[in-house]
Design a protein that fits this description.
By secondary structure, this protein is mainly alpha-helical. It has helices spanning 31-46, 65-77, 93-105, 116-128, 199-209, 225-234, 265-270, 275-283, 297-303, 318-331, 334-348, 358-365, 372-379, 390-396, 402-414, 419-432, 437-449, 457-464, 466-479, and strands at residues 18-21, 50-55, 84-88, 109-112, 157-160, 167-172, 176-181, 189-191, 214-218, 241-245, 248-249, 314-315. A hairpin with a 3-residue loop joins strand 6 (167-172) and strand 7 (176-181). Bound molecules: glutamic acid (GLU).
């Protein structure tokens, strides 16, 4: 594990900051989840604190080991290490049961024998009466209240005895002050009939046990917060601070989903993004440091603060992500790129020749590729010949260019095979045959590479090698 940075300026003397990322393993590592992890981790790192990974796997129907693996793999790929964990909630069952017993014993929770059907009927009646459907507290013990007699054929749930008076208020570190009346909250089920604890309860016990000081999470959890605070209070626990980060939206203003394109972190890996580019983009999604766009993790951690998180939802912009990726590709180390590009290229061209060296091809193409996939696609022309499409030839190769091309075929056999000499030969041919540069460069490009999009024709031909260039050019001229 890398050394942690020394505590930053805002380091609070007496608080050891502890944050967590608590994904539910019910799919892949979502872009939104990755951003939550990024912010939580940066906050801990910024203050010399501890970042914890906790897998919330109690939803047995939806949680899968593959999804756990996808989350861990995503975290690894993004190089987001953690100081503690991964903790798995399923391994903490005995602890939840212990705390449940504690709440029952202290009178903060009670058994409720109302069956599912009974609760449904209760709700239906409330709806008909124009009331908000809620549990009516029929099994809630109160002084002097006589409870129904305990049925023998029903296993009870455990409900939390939520305060009826007053309100729950907290100062959200992103959203500002929030206050919810207790009258809005009914007695939450914290254990099912089979004794297994429910979601909100596990979160509370974990945040308490793990001494979380700052809960940084998506604002889809704001509604859970007052319930969680009430339970924490009943346990006599110190309350964490909460920072609810607005959701990420698609370009159409709807919550980001598959409809908007890839939302899985590992899909971006597959699509040829660099992890540091994705992180950089995610860091700017709903957080800003002036107009800074490109910065590395170290810089981000040094700058990161909760105050600068936007209160309004950010919109996911795939073009901007692509642009950032391109900036990172430009400056990425060639050897690293070779490793990343080779397997992609092997998908396109079976058996990549040793010449031209892939490192040189990468160096030439990385300036103009948006993704590793694009880079590999562009690199293919150096390792296999694809016959240019007829329409492409018709569009670019004019009759007036043919004499110049024939002349160049002779020149190319003679000159020293360097970018400078190739450039000089093309320029001279253009002058001699009274053509503009593109009028000769485009036919050459299309004939030799099969595509109108390549880097500078001189650099491309130099790297492709004399033999391949002459073969491809001659083959075309012979076909006329
Ligand atoms: N497991 C929850 C989720 O994946 C997060 C819970 C939390 O951060 O408190 O949405």
């Amino acid at each position: 594990m890398p050394e942690r940075p020394t505590p930053g300026l805002n380091y609070r003397k007496h608080i050891m900051i502890r944050t967590r990322f608590a994904p539910s393993p019910t799919g892949y590592l979502h872009i939104g989840g990755a951003r939550t992890a990024l912010f939580s981790r940066a906050y801990a790192r910024r203050h010399g604190g501890t970042f914890i990974l906790r897998i919330e796997d109690t939803d047995l129907e939806r949680s899968t080991p593959e999804s756990v693996e996808a989350i861990l793999e995503g975290m690894r790929w993004l190089d987001m290490d953690y100081d503690e964990g991964p903790y798995f909630q399923m391994q903490r069952m005995p602890r939840y049961k212990e705390v449940l017993a504690q709440l029952l014993a202290s009178g903060h929770a009670y058994h409720c024998y109302a069956s599912r059907d009974e609760v449904e009927a209760m709700r239906e009646q409330q709806r008909l009466a124009g009331l908000k459907p809620r549990y009516d507290g029929r099994w809630r013990p109160e002084p002097h209240k006589i409870l129904p007699s305990v049925p023998t054929d029903i296993l009870p749930v455990v409900r939390f005895k939520n305060p009826v008076e007053g309100s729950v208020a907290w100062h959200d570190l992103v959203k500002g002050p929030i206050e919810i009346g207790n009258a809005e909250l009914d007695d939450l089920i914290i254990a099912r009939p089979d004794g297994t604890p429910t979601y909100n309860f596990c979160v509370v016990v974990d945040d308490w046990d793990m001494k979380i000081t700052h809960v940084i999470r998506g604002d889809d959890h704001v509604n859970n917060t007052p319930r969680q605070i009430n339970i924490l209070k009943a346990l006599g626990a110190q309350l964490p601070q909460y920072a609810h980060v607005p959701m990420i939206l698609g370009a159409d203003g709807e919550r980001l989903s598959k409809r908007h394109g890839a939302v899985s972190v590992l899909q971006y890996q597959e699509d040829g993004y660099l992890p540091e580019a994705l992180l950089n983009y995610l860091a700017r999604l709903g957080w800003a440091h002036g107009d800074e766009e490109i910065f590395d993790m170290e810089q981000f951690i040094a700058w990161f603060n909760l105050e600068a998180i936007s209160r309004s939802p950010a919109r996911f912009n795939p073009e901007k992500l692509l642009w950032i990726n391109q900036q990172y590709l430009k400056f990425a180390d060639n050897e690293r790129l070779v490793k990343l590009v080779r397997p992609r290229l092997e998908h396109i061209v079976a058996g990549i020749a040793a010449e031209p060296p892939l490192g040189e091809v990468v160096q030439l193409l990385k300036q103009r590729s948006g993704t590793l996939t694009e880079l590999a696609e562009a690199a293919a022309l150096f390792y296999r010949y694809s016959e240019p499409a007829k329409e492409l030839l018709e569009a670019h190769v004019t009759v007036s260019a043919l004499p110049a091309l024939r002349h160049l075929a002779l020149q190319f056999a003679r000159i020293e095979w360097t970018k400078t000499e190739i450039n000089a030969a093309i320029k001279t041919a253009a002058t001699d045959f009274k053509l503009k540069m593109p009028e000769i460069a485009m036919p050459l490009r299309v004939i030799i590479t099969g595509t109108p999009y390549t880097p500078g024709i001189d650099a491309t031909l130099a790297l492709l090698g004399r033999t391949a260039v002459l073969q491809r050019l001659q083959r075309y001229l012979d076909s006329l």
